[in-house]
Amino acid sequence: MCTGAHRSPTADRPPSIEGSPPSVKLVYKTLEYEGPLTQKQLVEQTDLARPTVSNALSELERDGLVRERFYVHDARQRLYALETDG
Question: What pTM was estimated for this model as a whole?
Answer without folding.
Answer: 0.77
